[in-house]
Amino acid sequence: MNITVIGGGTGSTVVLEGLKNYKDLNLSVIVGMMDDGGSNATVRDEFGLLPLSDVRKSILALSDSGNNEVWRKLFLYRFSEGSGIKGHTLGNLLMIAMTEILGSELEAIEMFKTLFNVRGEILPVTFDSVKLVAEYDDGSKVVGEHRIDEPSKQKNIVNFYLDSEAKAFEGALKAIKESDYIVLGPGDLYTTILPNILVTGIKEEIKKSKAKLVYVSNLMSKIGQTRGKTQKEIVELMEKYIGRDIDFILINNGKIPEKAYKRYKRDGEDILVDDLKDGCGREILRSNLVAYNLIKKDKGDKLARSLVRHDKKKLASKLYSLFNQKRNVVLRFLGSLLSLYKD
After folding, report:
1. What is the CATH number of the domain that holds 124?
2. What is the number of structural domains in the chain?
3. pTM recorded for the entire structure
4. Residue 57, Cβ neighbours under 10 Å: how many?
């Protein structure tokens, strides 16, 4: 069964880390290439390369768990001191070096897939250098993923696009075409999920695809993106950009850890109001998907990160059941027939 995850951020890595344990799934991840914050700003500005952080995360998410843990730690290591390298991960620096050695980012990705024994495809959504543009309800306009991701105050995006045309990587289009299920989220609406949909060819291929479309909802709202929006409003917005209905929606109904919840409330965020009902071809699946382990930030990481995340095992189990629901119905039906025959 072919599963394609679209996003590439931290939320996507949780999905990939969980699903890779189901060996009958062929996994692909389509990674956004518009990040221009933190270490990625240097990668773009000084080396002229597309952002590497989400590619690096996807490599580790799909790597064989039997790999040497020391190599994983090295790839994740973030420098907390040092002029010029503070805030950078060693993994990003290694990927820059590999790109210069082999001559292309795609070849560098393939090499690290081999080194980390990756089971699955890691596919940049595009190799064109573009930036995100957001226009807001107060008449202002912001250019750049990082600035959109961390606004100074709450305002609503009314128009969202790329600053120039970006053509989809053929490998990404092929993965969508061959998919049985396409998973969107969890991830920031305007800076992780929708940027991929804006790339020429992606939404067109999704609309043509016979694959079922699955959306994993975020656990909490986010300033400038989903604050004040309900689950229904978010889903309808996504469907407007994609041009087709979402088939399945996974929503957390587990309790958010109290300490983290109070922190979100102080920052103006809250649990998204669940006003979704089955209909229009959508099926709503509710389950406890929260991870209760403590989220720690790396030393030297200056970017804002979420305090709570989805539990990879819970989420993967729910997705795997969804992927196999038709097969399970058939097996139960055959079992019933066999039982009648024996009687």
Report:
1. 3.40.50.10680
2. 1
3. 0.90
4. 24
